[in-house]
Design goal:
The protein is of the alpha/beta class. The structure holds adenosine-5'-diphosphate. The site of adenosine-5'-diphosphate (ADP) has 19 residues, from helix 1, strand 12, strand 13, helix 10 and helix 11.
């Protein structure tokens, strides 16, 4: 469709478990903020609804005020709830704060409350808030399993109450999070869980004989949303070919599309980034010894054995490496702690086991190469941010990595070539790519510098892809 969509303005409400920078764990937080800001700048009205996690630093929210005191249903009770409004990165955010123990604790995930129940509560509390305040956006945009019940609640409950106008978009950022849920648990948000245990509704397709007792909020969200988006064209194809949701996605093929994520190039801009001691642009010159960084959640998806192998290899090749990562499982944490203890004192390797927004900016800026050896990667932001900061990507060819990084030694499309790509999940495949990257760095410094300048100019911003989301919104909105 032509660009008329931005004359025809929309009201979009995101319902999300993460929001950068105040409640970010991984890419989901970046995407909601980046897409939200891109739509705002095109003239649309955007609000974001987020749980008021206890760990959110209130000083990072502007103009925070209590706007609504109401009750929302959970498990037989109406829970007194506050809705606050504030501004984060220029976007209006509604914070939902229940008076019970949900969302308390030191981090976004992993508190001592039942996460499934807390997000079921949050999902309903968002619709309840729209109903009592009379806010009817054109689009309710939900993300991941945490808010996958919103479309069920909308079409089977709130649409029969007072909400008429909204249509629903679900973005799947990572299909490996199912949102497992029993019928009884689903009933806690006020729906009759026993009505959803069929293959055409919310039954988890992985269960033997399609056990009607076992539901998946992500699956239900796919069935009940008006449009379903995943975060790169290659991941779309991969998920239609294999995986637990293939059958459901094939059945919903006409409303399922792949849109590559962007990065927010105002937040991620080496020329203005306040976290950097010195700002720079595409004129940066590389150091003598290449520095390779890997900034990631330390989970199996990210290729942990390949990250460990890269440490050895970089040492052998005489480079430097910094890993900034947070593990969510104690076994992985211990393994990397052991690696940190043996390397951090007297080698060119540093393993930093923490989450730090500030350090991540400085590391992307300092890096010559950014390593993303994921086993699967729906989209991946680290390679895009790395390139924006002048780091040449070394990645495994999967999902969104395959849509954004093209090998410098593949001469079939030289104008796209921007990094080093390997295919296998074995250590030798990574060896090949890293060896090639190191030789290129050492033997062809002029070519390397040209590549650095090229990757910094690649436009992976939301300006490029937000329009595709607007097209999806317009294709389902009620005129
Ligand atoms: P995922 O969503 O699977 O975590 P993405 O590549 O889409 O992966 O997004 C990861 C985002 O989280 C990037 O912005 C990356 O810089 C950031 N990130 C990951 N780990 C850390 C960390 N330990 N400290 C700071 N930022 C991190």
């Amino acid at each position: 469709p032509p660009e008329i969509q931005d004359i025809d303005l929309l009201h979009i409400v995101h319902v999300t478990a993460e929001l950068a920078p105040i409640a970010k764990v991984g890419g989901l937080g970046d995407v909601v903020t980046g897409l939200g800001r891109a739509c705002l700048s095109r003239g649309h009205k955007v609000d974001i609804m987020l749980p008021f996690y206890e760990c959110i630093q209130k000083q990072n929210i502007n103009e925070l005020e209590l706007v609504t005191t109401y009750t929302s249903y959970h498990d037989g009770n109406w829970v007194p709830t506050n809705a606050y409004r504030g501004i984060v990165s220029g976007i209006a955010v509604i914070f939902i704060e229940p008076s019970n123990h949900f969302f308390k604790g030191e981090s976004v995930y992993g508190g001592s409350y039942n996460e499934l129940e807390a997000y079921l509560f949050f999902s309903r509390a968002c619709l309840e808030w729209m109903q009592i305040t009379g806010k009817e956006p054109d689009i309710i945009h939900v993300h991941e399993w945490q808010t996958g019940v919103v479309p069920l609640l909308y079409w089977d409950m709130y649409h029969y109450l007072s909400l008429q106008k909204p249509r629903i978009v679900l973005t799947i950022h990572n299909m490996e999070h199912y949102g497992e849920c029993s019928q009884e648990q689903l009933s806690k948000c006020g729906l009759d869980g026993s009505l959803y245990g069929t293959v055409d509704k919310a039954v988890d397709d992985r269960t033997i004989g399609h056990n009607p007792e076992r539901l998946s909020l992500l699956k239900g969200g796919i069935v009940y949303s008006n449009a379903v988006v995943t975060v790169s064209p290659t991941y779309l194809t991969e998920t239609l070919c294999s995986g637990w949701l293939t059958r459901t996605l094939m059945q919903n093929r006409e409303k399922y599309i792949g849109i590559l994520n962007g990065i927010d190039t105002t937040i991620w801009n080496p020329a203005t980034d306040a976290f950097l001691p010195t700002n720079y642009d595409a004129q940066k010159v590389g150091g003598r010894v290449p520095l390779i960084v890997c900034i990631t959640r330390l989970v199996a998806q990210k290729g942990l054995h390949l990250i460990r192998h890269a440490i050895k290899l970089v040492e052998q090749l005489g480079g430097q490496m910094i890993i900034l990562g947070k593990a969510s499982n104690t076994q992985v944490e211990r393994e990397f702690e052991d690696l940190a203890n043996s390397h951090n004192k007297d080698s060119d390797i540093r393993i930093l086991l923490m989450y730090s927004e500030e350090l991540s900016h400085m590391l992307y800026a300092a890096a010559d190469m950014v390593l993303v050896p994921s086993i699967y990667e729906p989209c991946g932001l680290a390679q895009m941010i790395g390139m924006r900061y002048g780091a040449v990507p070394v990645v495994r060819k999967t999902g969104g990595l395959a849509d954004t990084v093209f090998d410098l030694d593949d001469h079939s499309q030289p104008e796209m070539a921007n990094g080093f790509v390997f295919e296998g999940i074995d250590e030798e495949s990574l060896d090949g790519a890293l060896h090639r990257a190191f030789s290129y760095y050492k033997e062809k410094p002029n070519d390397w510098n040209r590549t650095v300048q090229n990757v910094m100019k690649i436009d992976n911003s939301w300006n490029n892809t937000a329009g595709k989301y607007i097209d999806v919104y317009n294709s389902i909105r009620v005129k």
